[in-house]
Amino acid sequence: QVHLVETGGGLVQPGGSLRLSCVASDTIRSRVIDWYRQGPGNEREWVAHSTGGGNEKYADSVKGRFTVSRDNAKNTVYLQMNRLKPEDTGIYLCHARYTDSWGQGTQVTVSS
After folding, report:
1. pLDDT tens across 64-79, in order?
2. Please, how many CA atoms are within 13 Å of residue 107, restricted to the half-sphere of its CB?
3. What is the C-alpha separation between 29 and 40, in angstroms, rounded?
4. What tens digit of pLDDT does each residue of 26-76 get?
5. For 15, 30, 92, 95, which has the most beta carbons within 10 A of its beta carbon?
6. Do the beta carbons of residue 85 and residue 64 sit within 8 Å?
């Protein structure tokens, strides 16, 4: 198991930006880390993943607005979220595929 901690959530107005961080207790080098979000209905939606090899992928709903990046030296994956919309509201969680580990999540609320 790898321990994951997400931070950076908060309340932001529509059109605003946030940057989320996911810090892992183990090396993330060459390992796939996903970002998911869980909406008010508790449905979990995949948002993006970082492979560490420059092969990031995004859900259609966030493509062009969100950017995933990583700092392997800090065992950290980031999710830069721009032009936020109310439908982006939810708990954002990171997931380490190689151990199927989840963080506890960070709340993002987009509202005026």
Report:
1. 999 999 999 999 999 9
2. 6
3. 33
4. 999 989 999 999 988 888 999 999 997 778 999 999 999 999 999 999 999
5. 92
6. no
What's the N-to-C CA distance of the chain in angstroms?
Answer: 39
2 SS3 class:
coil
46: closest CA among 78, 57, 31, 104? 57
Overall residue count recorded for the chain in this entry: 112
Residue 69 in tokens? 């990046």
SS3 track for 6-54: EECCEEECCCCCEEEEEEECCCCCCCCEEEEEECCCCCEEEEEEECCCC
